[in-house]
Amino acid sequence: MPEQHDQNADIASRSLRGELAHRCQAITEARWFALGVFAVILLNAALLGVETYSGLAAQWHHWLRQAEHVCLAAFTVEILVRMLAYADRPREFWKDPWNSFDLVVVLCAFVPVVRENATVLRLLRLARVLRTARFLPQVRIVLVAVVRSLPGTMSFLLVGALLLYVYAMVGWVFFGSHDPEHYGSIGRAVLTLFLLMTLDGIGDAVHSGLEVSRWSLVYYASYVLLASFVLVNVLIGVVITSLEEAREMERDEPAEATDAGDPPAVQHHLAARIAAARRALDELEQDLGQAAPPRARQAALVVPAVVARPASNPARARRRTSRRRR
To answer: pTM value?
Structure first.
């Protein structure tokens, strides 16, 4: 009986958690909730912009402080509601990167060292503006695409760095003595070539190079071809591929959520019905055990045995029937 009582208590606690998660999930999925959080994020961004004006910040310092506390309280309530929406499945909360990001941004505002540092606190408040991506699907897709393109971007940066270093060394060898302002050292040469990657000032650089040697035309033409056209197009291709993958992931998420199983409301209803059926069976067993006398219990045990006893031999049954007829 103690084990049965523990099972009933466990089922009841699961039922309560399921009910709480269902209600909180209904709140988080409501349109007014998303619009309210989005409005608070925009208010937070507006407050950051107002604080950049020293006159307004000094005049409205008290009210700006109160508004910041209101925004922080709203963000805290929001993240608590989102966490309670996963009360029946806590591990699912951490599978969404946006939940982890929101929780870190909100919790850092309560850390004593961070709270006392105005610069770090402003940066954290600025990070809250990035939370608009949660409520804007297109922005979320772009951010996911940027994150997924990081491995390819790192390869692109490595190849670009090697290209810049090689051409910077060649430029220092050929133009270092004639144009020390742009090619006097490897650092200046890399900076010059990095700015030339955008084709800004390429005409002046070619004219200056032709005064040194005609071969400088080959140098600048090959650099522009490799750096401005090939590498940039490779980077664009990596980003576009990542963008398509991010869109496919965004389309697949609703399907996965549908195929994952029954919604929380259905699961809660089934758990409640199972718990009620178990309680009814337990009560019936107790009533039968207390009300039935010992002989009735023996009869209750004998009757099923008699009923379950197999029939006699069919041949003997026929003989008995024929004798009775005679």
So the answer is: 0.52
